[in-house]
Structures are given as structure tokens and as C-alpha cells.
Design brief:
Length: about 650
């Protein structure tokens, strides 16, 4: 966070803390308190929705679990606040795990359905288990006492404020750490995450559990805030509201969560009052028309692009006057708002404002690291450089068969790769080269055959486990984490160098700081190594294609691999870039890393490979020194004479 945004944040929070001093109306104090409670939940929901990119329709249920843990502990045991708060967080996090473990095996619409079912079941259970929850009657809880003092409305407000700030700081720290990077990475490219040793499933569950903990804290505070809880609060409409808040406020921002919370607290009040709704809808239509007019006049937008939003808001205003009663239409209006946001405000309000400023302010400060010492032009490989036992097989594959239905993409292939060499894997398109890499990295489990790497079998192990044991790779279709910077991409590769826990991260312990600093230093070293100096803070998706390929290699090297698999690294590169690439691959081998290289550029293969295997229709048709292979008649027929130009 830079100094300016830190200043804005502190000012904003101070204003929030002082709110009770400016108004003595308990209605407003309660309303702002509720906004802060929802914001706590949204910090957590954003971790799941914004960072990992999963959909949860179960957060109203989790919120309910938090509230009822507080309620039940209070009426059954008379437990004090300092017991109830951690208990609510822990119990809800437990429910989160219970939901996540099976649910996150599926994704997309299935996950939405499972979480929705969870929410519904929680509501039914609260209703039916009246021996514990008092059923539909609900539970009354007075405001808590703290250190022997009964908190009044203002005292409770400040308690909520303090916990909201604490939640914000902790969420922010988690999300900026290696844990947060893992969350973002699995959204950016699950397959690349796994192949960088960051288990997608594990981190999805982790995100869900943290998020549930936040929902638990929010639910607990909500119970005290309302002083009465009953099952029908925690319904489907609330779940939709939470999602709406995250999307409207903007993904991946804490300001957005607060803004979203404010919208969903104020919006239902708006939709309860028909008169007010009419005024707001008409104002919105007028503002929209003026905004569109100005935008078109200044050529910032086109009449065509503005037609739907302008007509839409006008229709909404007209509709508001036609309505007799608003209650039946609430969900439809929420639905319309979600559609509007999805089409026109994809980055939410905060993202929209940020984009405006970004366009005005020009480039961000990505030259911060440009001064880095280029003499540190080493890979900084830690462990496996010293003891190269050249000559021994690092990888041995025997009789590998990979069948997709009737197609044998790889058919009884043997592969021996010697330590410290560059081994070429060539063949026409569709001959099974990429499939071989996918088999070696655990993305596919071979139908038959054995694969041994550094004395251990690879078959049946997870991609992240294989990656951590020393096989790193790049992808034929570049698989970067697009929304993350170049440096962060590499830091995901360095995930294995972190031993600090979520507690270290939240408290910023010396251990975490040391690890984070080391990862930045090594990351920058790797960026220099592949010649991307000065681009550390550029988002990966904004890099030119050739540089993306180089970044992918740097990220793979971050894993400290013994074996590096490169799938067509020169594809799409210009001639000078290819020369640079060849130098880099040689340097990698000189550091003691064994390389398997899939490549269509014959000159590259011939100049740097120590040995070459040729695949055709899934079968190995030749193997040997590059010159021998090049002269082989079968190869010329299948490959050089065929597709290669
Ligand atoms: P190469 O990388 O040599 O161009 P691939 O390994 O990508 O070739 O593909 C080899 C064959 O396997 C192709 O016919 C391709 O269509 C098929 N194939 C690859 N992956 C799958 C899959 N997941 N399902 C079905 N067929 C696949
Ligand atoms: Mg391929």
C-alpha cells in the first residue's frame, strides 16, 4: 500500500470511529454498525469469490451458524463475550470445512448448487432443532458486557469497529502473503498452480475455511447487534445480497467490501419505501441521461453503448411509478441490478473508479525495481547445482500408454533422460508430445507403463506433489496468472520456500518477513535472469507474448527443479528473442538442471539438444544424437518431409 492510500484509509476509518460522536440517533449508529458487520463477512466472502473465483451461495447459512453459536452458547451456558467470539469463529470455520471438503471437488454450477443446498439445510436445521435453537421462536440476547461493563449502543459500536479493523488488517495481510498469492493463482490457472506445487484443492478448502471464520465472527456480532435472532433471517435473499455486495463493491478490494456492505444495508431500506424508491430511480435516470449525453459529446462513449443503460434506468423509473407495492418485486429488482453490474460494472464500483484514475494517471510505478544490479545474473539455484551425477538417468519411462477413448495418444513409449542434458522431444503436431509432458507432471495418469524420476515413481501422484519433488514445466498455451504481476507469478513458484503459517502472516512475524523479503529478492533475480528487468510490477496479462513465455520459464525455475520441461518455448517468438531463449536454456543446463525440450524450430533443437526422441502418432520412431536423428529416413518421412517447413 502506498502512502497516499494509507492516509486515505486511516482518515476514512477515523471518521467511521467518530461517527457516534456526530449523531446521537441510535437508528444511524445501529445502521453503520450493521454495515461494518456485513463488511466483516464480505472480507471473507471476497476471498472465495474475488480471489479464488469460486461461487458460494452458502454464506448466509454460515452467517447463521455464527449467530446461532453465539445465541446457543449464551442461553444454554451464559457464556461471556470473550468465549463466544472465538467459539463462533471456530464453529463456523468447522462448518466451512465440512462444506468445503466435499463441495470443492466440484466447481462452477455444481459448487453453486452444493453451497445453496448447504444454506437451505442450515436454515431448516435451525428451525427444527428447537431443543437447541428455540426453533422459529428465535433467541433473545442482550448487548454483551466487556470487562464487567455492560456495553451500550455506542460501546458496542466501538467493539464492532475494533473487530472490523482487526478483520480488515488480517484479511489484507493474508491476501498479500504467499497464501493470498496461492488463492489468486488458482483462479488465474488451476493447472499451473498445481504444477507450481500449490495444491489447488487444498487452497480452495483453506480459502473456504478462512471465509467461513469471517462469516462466523460477523454472525456472532450480528446476534448481539440485533439482540434477537430467528431462522428466517438467514435466507436465500441474504445470500444473493452478499454476492451482490461483493460484485458491486468490486472484487479484490477491502474498500469495495465496505462499500458493498453499505449498499446492501441501505438498499433494502430503500426498497421498503416506495416513495423513496421512486425518487432515487428518477434521479438515477436523470443522472444517467446527463452522464451519457456528456460522455457522447466528449466522444468517451458511443450512443449505441449507452442506449441500454439509459433506457434501462428510464424504464426502472417508469416502473417505480407504475408499482403499487414494492415488497413483491424486491428479488426481481436485485436480480436486475446483478445483471446490470455484470454487464456494465464488471470490476465493481471501486474497480471502475480505479480504472478511471489509471487511465488519467498513466503508467504505475513499475520502474521501482529497474535499478536492480544486473551483475546478479544468476539463477540463484539453491540446492542441486553442486552434485551433478552426469551420465545417470534422472527420468526413466517404460512402456507408457495414454489412451483417450479409442485414441492412443502415447503408445508404448520408453524415454531415458540423462541428468544434466538437454533432451529434445520432437514430432509432427498431434504426435503426443504435450500429452507426454502432461503424463510426466501428473495432469494425466497413464493408462499403463511406469515412470521413475530421481528414484521414485511418478504415476498416481498429484501434480503438486510431483512439482515439489523437482519437476517444473511451462505450457504450450501460456498459463500465467494473468491478474498478478510478473514478480508475483514467480513468487507463486517460490511458494515452497515459505514455512510461515497463517498466524505468522497475520502477525507479520520476523520469520514471515524474512521469507517474503527473500522471495522478492530471488524473484527479481529470476526476472533479471530471463531478461525481463524492469517489468517486475507489470501484470502478466499485459506483457507481450514473447515475454510471457520467458516469464513462465522464470516461474518454473523458481521451483528449484531438477528437471525442467519446456513445451514449445520458441513458438511465437521473434528471431532475436529465440537467440536470447537459446542462451537462457544453455545457462539453465549449465546450472545443472536437466531439460526436456519440445520444439518445432529445428535449428534450435539441433543446436542445443544433447539427444533427441522423435514421436509420430504416439509412437517413438527414432532416438539418438540430433545429427543422427536428422538423417534418419523414418524421421524425414514422418516429420521433416511432412509438416515442417
Ligand atoms: P502434440 O503436443 O504432439 O502436438 P498432443 O500431445 O497435444 O500432441 O496430442 C496428441 C493427441 O492426443 C492428439 O490427437 C490430441 O487430440 C489427443 N489428446 C490430447 N489430449 C487429449 C484429451 N485430454 N482428450 C482426448 N484427446 C486428447
Ligand atoms: Mg503440443
Amino acid at each position: 500500500m502506498n502512502r497516499k492510500s494509507f492516509f486515505v484509509a486511516v482518515t476514512g476509518l477515523t471518521a467511521l470511529a467518530c461517527a457516534p460522536l456526530f449523531t446521537h440517533n441510535p437508528y444511524y449508529i445501529h445502521m453503520i454498525g450493521t454495515i461494518m458487520i456485513y463488511a466483516i463477512l464480505l472480507f471473507g466472502l471476497d476471498i472465495v469469490v474475488g480471489y479464488t473465483g469460486q461461487v458460494s451461495l452458502g454464506h448466509a447459512g454460515l452467517f447463521g451458524v455464527g449467530s446461532y453459536t453465539a445465541g446457543v452458547l449464551f442461553i444454554k451456558l451464559g457464556a461471556p463475550l470473550w468465549v463466544i467470539i472465538p467459539a463462533s469463529v471456530a464453529v463456523t470455520a468447522g462448518f466451512g470445512a465440512l462444506l468445503a471438503l466435499p463441495a470443492l471437488r466440484v466447481s462452477g454450477p455444481y459448487l453453486a448448487m452444493v453451497t445453496l443446498a448447504f444454506g437451505t439445510i442450515v436454515q431448516i436445521l435451525i428451525n427444527e432443532m428447537d431443543f437447541l435453537t428455540e426453533g422459529p421462536l428465535g433467541i433473545k440476547i442482550p448487548k454483551p458486557s466487556l470487562a464487567g461493563m455492560q456495553l451500550n449502543e455506542n460501546g458496542f459500536y466501538w467493539l464492532v469497529f475494533a473487530l472490523m479493523v482487526l478483520s480488515l488488517v488480517v484479511a489484507d495481510r493474508i491476501l498479500r502473503s504467499q497464501i493470498g498469492r496461492a488463492f489468486e493463482a488458482l483462479r488465474g490457472s488451476p493447472v499451473a498452480s498445481d504444477c507450481m506445487g500449490v495444491s489447488v484443492y487444498q487452497y480452495k478448502v483453506f480459502a473456504f475455511v478462512i471465509s467461513a471464520g469471517y462469516a462466523g465472527l460477523a454472525g456472532c456480532l450480528y446476534a448481539y447487534s440485533e439482540q434477537y435472532i430467528s431462522p428466517n433471517t438467514y435466507n436465500f435473499e441474504l445470500t444473493v445480497l452478499f454476492l451482490l455486495a461483493v460484485i458491486m463493491g468490486g472484487r479484490k478490494t477491502r474498500t469495495g467490501a465496505l462499500l458493498g456492505a453499505a449498499i446492501i444495508v441501505i438498499l433494502p431500506k430503500l426498497l421498503d419505501d416506495l416513495e423513496l424508491f421512486r425518487i432515487v430511480a428518477s434521479t438515477l435516470a436523470v443522472l444517467m441521461a446527463i452522464g451519457a449525453g456528456v460522455g457522447i459529446a466528449r466522444k468517451l462513449t458511443t450512443p449505441k453503448a449507452m442506449a441500454v443503460p439509459v433506457l434501462g434506468t428510464m424504464a426502472l423509473a417508469g416502473f417505480s411509478f407504475w408499482l403499487q407495492s414494492i415488497t413483491d418485486w424486491r428479488l426481481s429488482i436485485f436480480g436486475l441490478m446483478i445483471l446490470f453490474v455484470v454487464y456494465y460494472l464488471q470490476d465493481g464500483i471501486v474497480g471502475f473508479v480505479r480504472n478511471l484514475f489509471a487511465r488519467k494517471g498513466g503508467a504505475t510505478d513499475n520502474h521501482a525495481f529497474r535499478t536492480i544490479d544486473r551483475s546478479k545474473d544468476a539463477i540463484m539455484v539453491a540446492s542441486n547445482t553442486g552434485h551433478i551425477e552426469a551420465g545417470h538417468d534422472l527420468l526413466t519411462a517404460k512402456g507408457v500408454l495414454m489412451q483417450f477413448g479409442g485414441l492412443k495418444a502415447i503408445n508404448q513409449v520408453d524415454l531415458h533422460v540423462k541428468r544434466g542434458t538437454i533432451h529434445g522431444l520432437i514430432g509432427p503436431n498431434g504426435s503426443g508430445k504435450s500429452t507426454m509432458m502432461n503424463v510426466l507432471t501428473g495432469i494425466y495418469v497413464p493408462t499403463a507403463g511406469s515412470i521413475e524420476f530421481a528414484g521414485r515413481s511418478v504415476v498416481g501422484r498429484t501434480s503438486s506433489d510431483i512439482a515439489l519433488s523437482g519437476i517444473a514445466r511451462t505450457f504450450q498455451n501460456v498459463q500465467l496468472f494473468g491478474e498478478m504481476t510478473a514478480l508475483q507469478n514467480i513468487q507463486v513458484g517460490l511458494h515452497h520456500t515459505f514455512g510461515s503459517s497463517i498466524l505468522d502472516v497475520s502477525l507479520h512475524t520476523p520469520r514471515y518477513r524474512r521469507e517474503e523479503e527473500a522471495s522478492v529478492e530471488r524473484g527479481l533475480g529470476l526476472i533479471n535472469f530471463v531478461g525481463l528487468t524492469g517489468l517486475a510490477n507489470e501484470e502478466a496479462r499485459n506483457l507481450p507474448y514473447g515475454k510471457q513465455r520467458l516469464l513462465e520459464i522464470a516461474r518454473a525455475l523458481a521451483l528449484d527443479p531438477q528437471l525442467l520441461l519446456l513445451d514449445e518455448p520458441a513458438a511465437g517468438l521473434t528471431a532475436p528473442d529465440i537467440k536470447e531463449l537459446v542462451t537462457i536454456i544453455r545457462k539453465i543446463r549449465d546450472h545443472g538442471i536437466t531439460v526436456i525440450l519440445i520444439e518445432h524450430h529445428m535449428d534450435v533443437v539441433m543446436s542445443i539438444c544433447d539427444s533427441v526422441s522423435v514421436l509420430d502418432f504416439g509412437q517413438k520412431i527414432a532416438e539418438g544424437k540430433p545429427a543422427e536423428v536428422q538423417a534418419d529416413e523414418k524421421v524425414i518421412e514422418a516429420y521433416l518431409g511432412g509438416t515442417a517447413a
